[in-house]
């Protein structure tokens, strides 16, 4: 079982679960996703981050800063730097694809990281994809759906926990409804009073109450 971090203390989901983390911009979706990722890292879970927004070195540094000194297996798939014309320096734990729409490359890097972790004796992994909205900027819904069908299936077969961040306000209802078919459940994030945000889980077990972030 995988716990869902401090925000949802005491809540667990089965291995192979894929969760969509959806909400408006600037409501803390990304921060929540990293908290869930790091809550596993502190107990020895491997972590794989596919980043289509921030460069890999930045993501690696941020993730490691949340681990309280523990050193679990980690792999970052940077889909940003080469697209921006950068020649990134070699960083342990970071691999690169040509762009966010290099879906073949993303899939290969996912498999290679999972194999690397398995060879190192790591059997429980958390996988974060931030963000699906970037994919949808560069590709059509049908292509993204097919890619995610394979990707979420890989998460399931590896008995990992998959976390997929999306800006729900950037896409129409049809797009959101289509993508939701791929996920076991959803963490909905919304803006609350006094510039705070709150979140709840639905679709896996009973729907939780809204909890502050």
Overview of this protein structure:
The chain is an alpha/beta fold. Helices cover 34% and strands 24% of the residues. The chain has six helices and eleven strands. A hairpin with an 8-residue loop joins strand 1 and strand 2. The longest helix is centred in the middle third of the chain and has 17 residues. The model has no long low-confidence stretch (mean pLDDT 95).
Short description:
By secondary structure, the protein is α/β, with parallel strands linked by helices. The chain has six helices and eleven strands. The longest helix has 17 residues, at 103-119.
What key phrases describe this protein's structure?
alpha/beta; 6 helices; 213 residues; two-stranded antiparallel ribbon; 11 strands
The value of Rg in angstroms is: 16 Å
- Averaged pLDDT: 95
Through-space gap between termini: 23 Å
Oligomer: single chain
Secondary-structure-derived class: alpha/beta
Helix and strand arrangement:
Elements: E1 2-3, E2 12-13, E3 18-23, H1 29-41, E4 46-51, H2 56-65, E5 74-78, E6 94-96, H3 103-119, E7 125-130, H4 132-138, H5 141-157, E8 161-167, H6 173-180, E9 185-191, E10 197-202, E11 211-212
Parallel strand pairs: 3-8, 3-9, 4-5, 4-7, 5-6, 7-8
Antiparallel strand pairs: 1-2, 9-10, 10-11
């Amino acid at each position: 079982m995988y716990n869902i971090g401090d925000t949802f203390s005491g809540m667990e989901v089965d291995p192979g679960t894929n969760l969509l983390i959806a909400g408006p911009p600037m409501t803390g979706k990304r921060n929540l996703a990293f908290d869930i990722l790091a809550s596993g890292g502190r107990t020895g879970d491997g972590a794989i981050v596919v980043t289509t927004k921030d460069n890999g070195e930045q993501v690696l540094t941020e993730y490691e800063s949340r681990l309280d000194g523990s050193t679990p297996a980690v792999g970052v798939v940077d889909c940003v730097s080469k697209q921006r014309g950068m020649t990134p320096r070699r960083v342990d734990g970071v691999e690169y694809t040509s762009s966010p729409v290099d879906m073949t490359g993303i899939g290969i890097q996912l498999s290679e990281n999972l194999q690397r972790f398995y060879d190192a004796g790591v059997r429980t992994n958390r996988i974060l994809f931030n963000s699906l909205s970037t994919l949808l900027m560069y590709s059509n819904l049908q292509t993204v759906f097919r890619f995610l069908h394979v990707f979420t299936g890989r998460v399931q077969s590896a008995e990992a926990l998959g976390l997929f961040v999306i800006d729900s306000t950037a896409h129409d209802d049809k797009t959101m409804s289509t993508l939701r078919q791929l996920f076991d459940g959803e963490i909905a994030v919304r803006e609350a009073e006094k510039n705070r945000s709150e979140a709840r889980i639905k679709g896996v077990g009973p729907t939780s109450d809204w909890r502050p972030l």
